[in-house]
Design a protein that fits this description.
Layout (H helix, E strand, L loop, with lengths): L16 H17 L2 H8 L7 H10 L18 H14 L5 H13 L6 H11 L5 E3 L15 E3 L4 E10 L6 E8 L2 E8 L5 E6 L8 E10 L1 E5 H40 L1 E2 L2 E2 L4 H29 L5 H26 L11 H13 L4 H11 L6
Parallel strand pairs: 1-4, 2-4
Antiparallel strand pairs: 2-3, 3-7, 4-5, 5-8, 6-7, 9-10
Helix pairs in contact: 1-4, 4-7, 4-8, 5-6, 5-7, 7-8, 7-9, 7-10, 8-9, 9-10, 9-11
Length: 382
């Protein structure tokens, strides 16, 4: 007699006391070091991000190592805690490379053999915030969409090729390069800056997340994983990145809603707050419902990733298909309901719209995730 299949555990969408304490610490740091005026001033300088802020966030609070097990030098936390950090980063649109380094690059390394020195060493450096790493793929690459590598590795391990629109590549000290070699695909570690490695900065829509084209011309790299293991490591990194990006989008939407409510309660016309007008009440109430649903979707994805649920790809597809449009809509409503001031450079609303629009394309557009969702759920196209 076949043993019954145990039911899947119910998702936990609530925040634990530890997660709330982590939120308080990150929010306090960002309020002190990355308020809107500071972010705007930084965008007008040549610095892609505030290194002191990143050091305080990554090392001072210890967020860089949340996904890394304690035996490898990390905090031994999970995707749930990393999601809280990303919510706060979305809420402040802080220019910090947390998603690219502490989430995507770390997850890619964890998919390799961590008993190897060439894997454990860089992983510990990322966990401690000593090194900034990126997975050298276009930011728009969706889970399951890595495809054939754009970089080639010769028999001696020299890497040649070009990868466009890599987030935070210009500031990275460790490049994880997905390359095709004589014996199949492999994941390579390349130190930067180095001979044969060149980055070309491009002007992105979202100035808080710098992009660069990466060119490798005979660059030397160390093989971290090959074949199916390398492919699985890359895919897991993209899946985790997409799932936790939904939490950043949630943070964007929450700030936009809260700021819109605050402004409409203070702005008066005809002797009363504009927020008391029925038409505006309806718009903000509808947006509140969407943000609440986005919170559930984002928390479900983080919980599924944290627990290693077999339904994680489904949860991630749902979260990205839903949260990305909600973040954009919240930012658009924020600008419109602020009236003329919402269109100015001095008001931070445009930062949130640009981040929301850029995030809508990052790690797969909503349409790509809806197609993945249909396939995972066994729904055929009409």
């Amino acid at each position: 007699m076949t043993a019954p299949v145990p039911p899947a555990s119910e998702p936990d969408l609530l925040y634990s006391a530890d997660e709330e304490a982590l939120r308080d610490a990150v929010r306090a740091l960002l309020a002190d070091r990355s308020d809107p005026a500071t972010v705007l001033a930084g965008l007008e300088s040549a610095l892609p991000y505030d290194r002191e802020l990143w050091r305080a966030l990554a090392t001072g609070i210890g967020t860089a190592g949340l996904l890394v097990p304690e035996k490898l030098g990390g905090a031994g936390a999970s995707a749930r805690e990393a999601a809280v950090v990303l919510e706060e980063l979305g809420r402040s649109v802080a220019p910090a490379p947390y998603l690219t380094s502490a989430v995507i690059a770390v997850t890619a390394l964890l998919g390799c053999d961590t008993d190897q020195v060439d894997v454990a060493g860089p992983l510990a450096a990322l966990a401690e915030g000593r090194t900034l790493g990126v997975l050298a793929l276009p930011l728009t690459t969706a889970p399951g969409g890595a495809g054939e590598p754009a970089v080639r590795a010769d028999a001696d391990g020299a890497l040649t090729g070009r990868v466009t629109s890599v987030a935070d590549a210009a500031a990275a000290e460790l490049l994880l390069v997905w390359a095709q070699g004589p014996h199949g695909p492999a994941l390579h570690a390349v130190e930067a800056p180095a001979d044969g490695v060149r980055t070309e900065a491009v002007i992105p829509l979202d100035l808080t997340r710098p992009l660069a084209h990466l060119t490798l011309d005979g660059a030397r790299g160390r093989v971290l994983a090959t074949g199916d293991r390398a492919r699985d490591a890359v895919e897991r990194a993209l899946l985790t990145g997409a799932g936790l990006l939904a939490s950043e989008q949630l943070g964007i939407a929450e700030w936009c809603l809260a700021e819109t409510v605050r402004h409409t309660m203070q702005r008066t016309q005809f002797g009363r707050p504009v927020g008391s007008f029925q038409a505006l009440k309806h718009r903000m109430a509808a947006l509140w419902l969407e943000v609440a649903s986005a919170r559930a979707a984002a928390r479900n994805a983080a919980d599924a990733l944290a627990g290693g649920s077999p339904d994680a790809p489904l949860a991630v597809a749902v979260a990205q298909a839903y949260c990305a449009p909600v973040a954009v809509r919240a930012a658009e409503e924020c600008i419109q309901l602020h009236g003329g001031i919402g269109m100015t450079w001095e008001h931070p609303a445009h930062l949130y719209l640009k981040r929301a629009k850029a995030d809508q394309l990052a790690l797969g557009a909503p349409g790509r995730h809806r197609a993945a969702l249909a396939e995972l759920a066994g729904l055929s196209a009409p």
